[in-house]
Each structure stands twice: as structure tokens, then as C-alpha cells.
Design brief:
By secondary structure, the chain is an alpha/beta fold. It has one domain: 2-enoyl-CoA Hydratase, Chain A, domain 1 (Alpha-Beta Complex), CATH 3.90.226.10. The protein has 16 helices and 8 strands.
């Protein structure tokens, strides 16, 4: 008879050598984030913010596939089908964590190696020291499953150069390391072979000194070289017009972008564009997260969210049956409903009285 093995913790939290270290530890699931993990990370960060023994926080992902593939959408799928309440509570706590990271008073160093999607962006791209490697693939693919970019993604995307953020959001394109830096999702490039030595250096050196030793020139930002057609085609607030411009452009990349948009949930694409335009006009990440929470709860109760996860992740037939089926069938009132006030269910985040002296706004 063998003793029962103690399961591996889903997140490893340690304090040593002046570093508060957080390791997302679900490598088989590319460290997909769940509610239990969020509820461990948040109090640790809150404690370390007041702990004089902690100079900096370091966040990494176990395994070599990625920091975090996003939220645990299979669990969310089953909760949505059951009409449950677990996911709204998860998202509430997750967005509170995103806001905490954005305002964190100490260096928040995160290694965005490999796949970093959705919720993975939420625990990384609001940090103050964001590292990418040659393996980094960063994106907000939500419209492909009937959801809309969240976790503060709609704060970052419209603040990227020109309309590159709109392109990434509506097509679900991924950013390599060069584009992630150019688009404001990351700060520094360190070759993956040097990451272990960089992390060791943080235990004895100041963050800036360690970066000075290991940060290297990033690869080319390929999307930035395409700003001409991207900025021209994605201007405005009408998805149908964006698609028409992409189709009329004549270039291969623009034509592919049009096809990608037309394959996504029509209502999610339209809500996503409105979310980006609204977020561009808001001042703080807290305001944006409040907006995203309203939208996410509307998505949670929608047909396309359950159908999108079914088609892409559960059954994997890659043939979602969207309702409405095309852009023309999505009414303005349908889109506006996603932003309706939630009453006593509002997220209700408030920015600090003096915003942005430390951390990211």
C-alpha cells in the first residue's frame, strides 16, 4: 500500500533574499489561472507591499510552455452552462488583483515567457518590470470564444501605437516580443537562456542593475512596420466599415485580417470595439476594469460565450454557431446592453486619491 501523494500547489509563494516570489504552478494547463490561485496571490501581494524585507516581487510560470494561458475556461464553461455564480466572483477577485498589480508600490518583475494570453496578461502586463523572451506569444483572444478582452486589456490595447491594439483585439493576433514592447505590454527583452541568471541576480542586485546586465536588444516589432494599412483600416467605430476597408485594401495581410474578424463572434467583435473606444477615453485602469466587469458578466450569460468555448476547447470542432450569425444582424441596442449598470453587483473600483505615483495607471 502506498501513501497518498500530496498534490502540487497550484501557486508557489515564497519570500527569500528580499524577493517575494510567485510561481504559477499548473504547467500541464500552461498555468491557467483559477479562483483559488487568485485568492492566494492577492493577500501575498498585499502583505509584501507593507513588508520592509521585500524589495521586489518576481512572478514566473512553471514549465517551459508559458507564463499563463489565461483563465481556466473549461471550468468557466461548465459554470456558465449550469447558470452558476462561481465565475462572476472569480472575475471580481481577478480584476481587483489586476488593479492591485497596476498600482503596486514596489518593483513587480514578471517573466512573460512563452504563451501569455487573457488572464495571463492580467497578472503580467500591468506590472512595472515586464520581461519577454524570444518565445513570448502574447495576446487577447477573447472574441474567438464569444468573450471580450478583459483583465485590464482594454486599458492597454487602445494605448498601443495607432490602431495596432484594435487589430490585435479584433483578429486575436498574437504579439511577439518586439511588438509586445512596442505596444506597451512589456518593457525589456532577455533571451530565455539568460532568464535563470537574471532571476538569481535579483536576489543580490537592485532590479535596474540586474536589467543592465541581462537586457538585450529585442527582435523586430513586425506589426509596427504595418502601421500604414492598420491605422487606415481600423479607424472609426464601425466593425462593418473596418472589414470593408480591410477587404478593399488589396494587401494579403489586410485580407487575412478581414477573414479573421468575420470568423469571430459577431456580437463579441462589436462589443470589443466599443469597449476599446470607451476605454481610450477613460483615465484610470479602475474605471476600465469596472466597465470590463459589466461586459464580462453580460458575456457570461450569452449564447456565444458557451458556444465559443464548446467549439474551440471542449468539442474542438472549430465550428461555432454564433447568434446572431453575422455582423449585420447585431443591433446597436444589443451592443449597448452589454454596458448596462449592474446596480449592487457593480465592481466599484476607485482609483487612489493621488493616482499613479507608483505602478501603472
Amino acid at each position: 500500500m502506498t501513501e497518498a501523494q500530496t498534490p502540487e500547489p497550484e501557486v508557489i509563494i515564497e519570500k527569500r533574499d528580499g524577493i517575494g516570489a510567485i510561481t504559477l504552478n499548473r504547467p500541464k494547463a500552461i498555468n491557467a489561472l483559477n479562483h483559488a490561485m487568485v485568492k492566494e496571490i492577492t493577500p501575498a501581494l498585499q502583505a509584501w507591499a507593507e513588508d520592509d524585507e521585500v524589495r521586489a516581487v518576481v512572478v514566473t510560470g512553471a514549465g517551459d510552455r508559458g507564463l499563463c494561458a489565461g483563465g481556466d475556461i473549461v471550468s468557466i464553461y461548465h459554470d456558465a452552462k449550469a447558470g452558476g455564480t462561481e465565475t462572476p466572483d472569480f472575475w471580481r477577485d481577478e480584476y481587483i488583483l489586476n488593479a492591485l498589480i497596476a498600482r503596486y508600490p514596489k518593483p513587480y518583475v514578471v517573466v512573460m515567457d512563452g504563451i501569455v494570453m487573457g488572464g495571463g496578461v492580467g497578472v503580467s502586463a500591468h506590472g512595472s518590470v515586464r520581461i519577454v523572451t524570444e518565445r513570448s506569444k502574447i495576446g487577447m483572444p477573447e472574441v474567438g470564444i464569444g468573450l471580450v478582452p478583459d483583465v485590464g486589456g482594454t486599458y492597454l490595447l487602445p494605448r498601443s501605437p495607432g490602431q495596432t491594439g484594435t487589430h490585435v483585439a479584433l483578429t486575436t493576433s498574437t504579439m511577439g516580443p518586439g511588438d509586445a514592447i512596442a505596444m506597451g505590454f512589456a518593457d525589456h527583452f532577455i533571451p530565455v537562456a539568460d532568464v535563470p541568471d537574471f532571476l538569481d541576480a535579483l536576489r543580490t542586485d537592485a532590479v535596474d542593475a540586474a536589467l543592465g546586465r541581462f537586457a538585450a536588444t529585442p527582435p523586430e516589432a513586425t506589426l509596427q512596420s504595418q502601421r500604414g494599412w492598420i491605422d487606415e483600416c481600423y479607424a472609426g467605430d464601425d466593425v462593418e466599415e473596418i472589414v470593408r476597408r480591410l477587404q478593399a485594401h488589396g494587401g494579403e495581410a489586410a485580407g487575412k485580417a478581414a477573414e479573421q474578424i468575420l470568423g469571430k463572434s459577431p456580437i463579441a467583435v462589436k462589443v470589443a470595439l466599443k469597449s476599446l473606444r470607451r476605454a481610450a477615453a477613460l483615465t484610470t485602469i479602475e474605471e476600465v476594469l469596472n466597465d470590463e466587469y459589466r461586459v464580462s458578466l453580460s458575456c457570461f450569460g450569452s449564447h456565444d460565450f458557451v458556444e465559443g468555448i464548446r467549439a474551440q476547447v471542449v468539442d474542438k470542432d472549430r465550428n461555432p454557431q454564433w447568434v446572431p450569425a453575422d455582423l449585420a444582424s447585431v443591433a446597436k441596442s444589443d451592443v449597448d446592453a452589454y454596458f448596462a449598470d449592474l446596480g449592487d453587483r457593480e465592481l466599484g473600483l476607485r482609483p487612489p486619491a493621488v493616482a499613479g505615483e507608483k505602478g501603472r495607471q
